[in-house]
Amino acid sequence: MLRLIGRRLLLMVPTLILASILIFLLAEVLPGNVGRSILGQYATPEDVAALNRELGADRPLVVRYVAWAGNFVTGDWGESPVQKVPVRPYVMAALWNSLILAGFALILIVPTSIVLGVFSGLRRDSALDRVITVSTLSMTVIPEFVSGVVLLYVFAVWLKWLPVTALAPEGAPFYERLYYLILPAIPLMFLELGYIARMARVGTVQVLSMPYIRTAVLKGVPRSRVVFGHVLRNAMVPTVTVIGSQVGWLIGGLVVVETLFSYPGIGKVMVESALNHDVPVLEASVLMVAVVYMFANLVADIVVALLNPRIRKGG
Amino acid sequence: MSAAEQPTSAVTPGAAALEVDDLEVTFHRRGRRLPVLKGVTLKIERGQAYGLVGESGCGKTTLAMAAMRYLASNGTLDNGRVLVDGQDVSTLSEEALRKWRGGKVAMVYQDPTQALSPAMRIGDQLAEVYHYHEGMNKKEALEQARESLRRVAIPDPDGTLRRYPFELSGGQQQRVVIAMALAVNPQLLILDEPTTGLDATVEAEILDLIEELRGRINAAILLITHNLGLVVRLCERVGVLYAGRLVEEGSAKEVFTDPRHPYTMGLLRCVPRFGMNKTDAALQTIPGTLPALGDPLEGCVYSARCPMAQPVCKRREPDFYAWPGDAAIRGQAEAEAMPPDPAAYSPHHAMPVGESSRHTRCYFTADVESMPHLTPVLATSLDERGGDTDVLDIDSMVRTFKDGSKKLTAVANVSLSLKKGETFGLVGESGSGKTTLAKCVTGLIPADSGTVTFEGGILKSTAGKRSQDALRAIQMVFQNPDSTLNPAWSTRQILTRAVRKLGGAKEGSVRAKVDKLSADVRVEPRFLFQRPTELSGGQKQRIAIARAFAGDPHLVICDEPASALDVSVQASILNLLVELQTKEQASYVFISHDLAVVRYISDRIGVMYLAELIEVGAAADVFDPPHHPYTEALLSSIPRLDFEKQRDRIPLRGSMPSLTDPPSGCRFHTRCHRSLGDICAQQVPPDMDAGNGHTYRCHIPPDELLALQQAGASEPEPAETL
Lengths: 315, 722
Prior knowledge:
The structure holds two protein chains of two kinds.
Chain A: H1 2-29, H2 34-39, H3 45-55, H4 61-73, H5 87-122, H6 127-141, H7 144-158, H8 174-208, H9 211-218, H10 223-252, H11 255-260, H12 266-275, H13 279-307, H14 309-314
Helix pairs in contact in A: 1-13, 5-6, 5-8, 5-10, 5-13, 6-8, 7-8, 8-10, 9-10, 10-13, 12-13
Chain B: H1 2-5, E1 18-29, E2 32-44, E3 49-53, H2 60-67, E4 75-84, E5 87-88, H3 94-100, E6 105-108, H4 112-115, H5 122-134, H6 138-151, H7 157-162, H8 170-182, E7 188-192, H9 200-214, E8 220-224, H10 228-234, E9 237-242, E10 245-251, H11 252-257, H12 262-270, H13 311-315, E11 320-322, H14 326-337, E12 352-353, E13 359-360, E14 390-403, E15 406-419, E16 423-427, H15 434-442, E17 449-454, E18 457-458, H16 468-473, E19 474-477, H17 491-503, H18 507-520, H19 537-548, E20 555-559, H20 567-584, E21 587-591, H21 595-601, E22 604-609, E23 612-618, H22 619-623, H23 629-636, H24 678-682, E24 687-689, E25 695-697, H25 702-712
Parallel strand pairs in B: 3-8, 3-9, 6-7, 7-8, 11-12, 16-21, 16-22, 19-20, 20-21
Antiparallel strand pairs in B: 1-2, 1-4, 4-5, 9-10, 10-13, 11-13, 14-15, 14-17, 17-18, 22-23, 23-25, 24-25
Helix pairs in contact in B: 5-6, 6-8, 8-9, 17-18, 17-19, 19-20
């Protein structure tokens, strides 16, 4: 097991290097001249050249990459030329906000969708199964800006049960911050529910058809024990993998929800930095999302290994 | 254990272990009623073993599931009762049913790799039974679990308790399943194809275990199998099921030596008898196929396929007549007196007529003995098939794999040759290197060293480097046609592509060639427009064979081509291969774990053990003494169809050694029953020459070995046919 984790951690190094190269190329090379893209098309060539020299953008590509990556690893993420603030605290604060929102959303999503999915899998083709499947799938097809606006209007504006914004006032205790996050988390739950519940359902149906479930039933094990001891453990494997892959989106893909509820998350930071040619911020935030995504997948793989002795013992 | 000695509270004292009474089970699919069991009546007395045979789809497993009250959700029990130990299964409450399953009735399943929960330790899975049936706490239950593993003779029961199923071999897993089934001392033990898919030696071990346990448990046995030899070995009584109807029933010995229903006779004639060869007897096949569920049947369920069917058979279904006496006289008379009314199909003839221990559902019972043979002998002698020129010559082939940090030798220095039109049978347990050898010859994987000479030229190591002609000339037929035929294509497309790729035919003649191929393999043209998923297993394998023959190959490697098929289909596939060989003069390498099949189809046979070819010779020579002790043990392990000649099995000691670290000296010495001691462990044995090109790798010279082996065994048996 430890060997498995160690190996996966080691494997993350080349993956991260590859990701950082891609991010670097996309952010600095593809737009062409860095100085020009920051200063705009009306700046004089001298100003552009001066800025390029100041940013080090006139050096060869490899040197620039190595310098950037080296600085990143040592924690020197530079200063945002647009915001005029140090990049690291700026990006990390946004990332932290996103993690809280995503974590809160996951706490809502994972148990609900698994319970719904397993239930409809166990009662396959029953009325309950149809109701769960149809309702979760129709929730999934509602775009988050639609459900978000409706929820915002009903619960925040009309009923006034929940706050309009997602960000609690400065210095608010943790539970109050969660209270502020309820409203933005629900559209995310809608989006994910159908998908994850579907996976849980398919997994359950598949495992129920396996001969070893028949063995368990026919050796006289009670149904509850069959479900909890034999079905769930094996049925959850694909679901866990899917949840792991959804974390990346929950961290970095929430621009709409973050904008709607004016929540300073990393999704918003990425979009703004891209629009404002804020290259250091863009690079740092995208790279951090990649790191979080990889860790989420690692956690998912570890859970899968815990569920499946074959993977665990394979090392 | 004391509770286990006592039969648990019998509801009716002296009741039969299983009584199935006019049972009708129907499946419902898209509003259609598909009757699976159409009135089955049978009885298994306490302590008796009853074999239920028939092709797949006859309803055998459905009957078992009805006894467990575990029908699929679209299945209904429409009529009749199932009584286990005098108690009607359908009247049980949910909780009583739970206690019943595993307590009164227990089951052993076909595929042990699928029957155990993959993510739960063996100990926990066994302990569950004791916990939920006897209310033991975890510690006691685990203690009992250890005991139960000991009972089924698992080496290292303590270690096994902590293992997961995937850490055990197939044979060990089946032992665990058996231990689980016997945990609470059931009244009825259902064995559903308990050894299918296991190697011959493992199968023999499991059979020994079941036989041995039978002396100690008081459970009656319902054995469901397509392997008639198993029934002979284990059962006193046998029932033959066809299309949801019991067509013959009686003592196993009587039914198999003197069958009185054409279907039973057909099944028995399909199976190659021990020692039978294609040049002296033909395998009989059963024409047609099992009717699909829901197909309307008029009269006798078997009449459509019966070579003896008379008009009366289609008018009215025969009753289940007692034999002898009743059936011959009453049946015939009834048949003749029958008014010609085509609509007079009465589905209610489940109950046996007349008092006898034998019944058969046929009007012409007395004529079954002389049922006509349908297939003529197909094979010509090897000389007529070309038999003099070498086609394939393998010289010192080695193939290794990496197993973690270790090196695993899958094929160790194997040399063999094959003549034109010859069939070379390759036998050995799984993991002995048969398939790897085949893959190296076809170039699917390269050999590490050694040469393959094909029709005089040395072949390149991989298929990608070989010439188009060489590719076309060497083809393969695999065990599972499901995974070798593209499911998205129609069979015509599959064959057309094969003809284009391999046949080198001109555009205009492609169609003609496809038609000829499908005619050669006897696939009706209408099936050419269907996809593989819509075909039966036998038809799919025919298409796979047609595909292999698209380019008029000179060498076809058949890797277990008939192992997954029913006996009647297996016979027709084997006949087809023989027929194509006679016509095309192709050579075959025929890989199978079924020794009787290999003996039947092969001219020469090679035996592999742990990556080495330890014996080669003419089929008859290899199967008769003197032969390698491993071959001797392998042959002794097969359940036979003949009753008198059940000989003592030679058990192989221990388990198969690892290929990464094979034993020194003779690789077989760790398990050999004729070991000479140190010399076998230290020196690699020479290839002994037993004459007629028959060699075996052993330290014992032929004359000594012959004396040893004849002392233990009976005389060579002639092939006997019904």
